[in-house]
Amino acid sequence: MKNKEMAKKILILTGGPRKKLDSFLEPIKRLGLDVFLASFCDIHFFADNSGNKLSIKVGSNDLSDFNLIYIRMVGKRLEDATLVVNYAKERGIKIVDKLYEDSLFIPSSITKAMEMKKLADNGVSMPPTYFGSLALIGENSATLLGMPYVVKSTSGKKARDVWLVKDKKEFEELYNTLREREKEGVCFFAQSLVASSQRVRVLVVGEKALGAITRPTKWRKTFIEKQNGEFPDGVKESIFPVPEKYSELAIRAAKATGLDISGVDILEDDKTRSLYVIEANAAPSWNLIKKDCQIDVEEEILKFLSSKL
Predict the structure, then answer these.
(1) 265 C-beta neighbours (distance < 10 Å), count
(2) Can you tell me the distance from the alpha carbon of 230 to that of 214, in angstroms, rounded to the nearest whole number?
(3) From 289's CA, which of 139, 143, 272, 301 has a CA 20 to 30 Å away?
(4) Are 69 and 63 in contact (CB under 8 A)?
(5) Does domain 198-294 have CATH number 2.60.40.1930?
(6) pLDDT tens digit string along 87-122?
(7) What pLDDT sits at residue 2?
(8) Architecture of 128-192 per CATH?
(9) For the chain, domain boundaries
(10) 10 Å Cβ neighbour count for 202?
């Protein structure tokens, strides 16, 4: 125990190749921290029928050698993540994000349904949302959400699995397109369409909004008017420092979903200026915020992790 307390070692794990973590190398050196970078592919153990508790390893290191484990991204490595999280909990190893402390199987960072429930349970403003089968979405969404509304898959990434439904006929066509995916286990939900021409992404680390960027929304032309016969270009810029109205909401959303490090997406209604959270991402891409806001995100994350030791 004494050696472990003296070591104060941090493990950062990611799904996929370890090189995804290479951007941490330089700030690790600058800060002089003892940090080991690894992939879930490096997790292994051997059961020898001795009756002793298993020692789970990452590379040549026992997981019990670490004081804190930061799971950067689970990806498809859910089984490995479950193994690591439960091993860490058994041995009192701190875990970031904190949502893993209460997760024995599938964390809410993987399921959008649980993410939305946590936001709603904690009173975080979000667009009116309806979760159910495609048949139920088609039956109830027009009444509950109004027209048009948006259909999303719970596994969608980077706005690829998002569809705008303007009328009953469009939904019927969408149903026929998505039904086979639903049979394979993909879940869907619907949300009211927020009249917002810009989306704001806020990067939250701990209880601090490090920086933010704004980007045009997918259906912005639905809400804006043409100028001289053309739609004006959407805005792509940094928002730094982050205004209080965005930072407060983003931090609340991160806390509600149990995330220490999160990319929170916010829509602001163009007319009413009301704010709505549409996502609290547990594995955000921060390259644009790092570049546009001139922030060393990896260094800020390492400082946060070391403060938790």
Answers:
(1) 20
(2) 21
(3) 272
(4) yes
(5) no
(6) 999 899 999 998 887 655 555 455 788 889 999 999
(7) 41
(8) 2-Layer Sandwich (3.30)
(9) 2-96, 128-192, 198-294
(10) 28
For 33-53, the DSSP string reads: --EEEEEGGGEE----SSSSP
What pTM value is reported for the model?
0.91
Upstream peptide bond of 148 is cis (omega within 30 degrees of 0) = yes
Q: Look at residue 1 in the predicted model and tell me its pLDDT.
A: 43
Residue with tokens 């992790």: 305
The torsion angles phi and psi of 159, rounded to 5 degrees, stand at 65, 15
Residues β-bridged to residue 230: 227
Confidence band for 16, pLDDT divided at 50, 70 and 90: confident
Structure tokens at 22: 């290479």
Structural element, H or E, at residue 278: strand 275-281
Strands 237-239 and 188-192: unpaired
Q: Is the dihedral of CA 179, 158, 227, 246 positive or negative?
A: positive
Instruction: Reply yes or no on domain 2-96 having CATH 2.70.150.10.
Output: no
The predicted-structure confidence for 54-86, as pLDDT tens digits, reads as follows 889 999 999 999 999 999 988 788 889 889 998
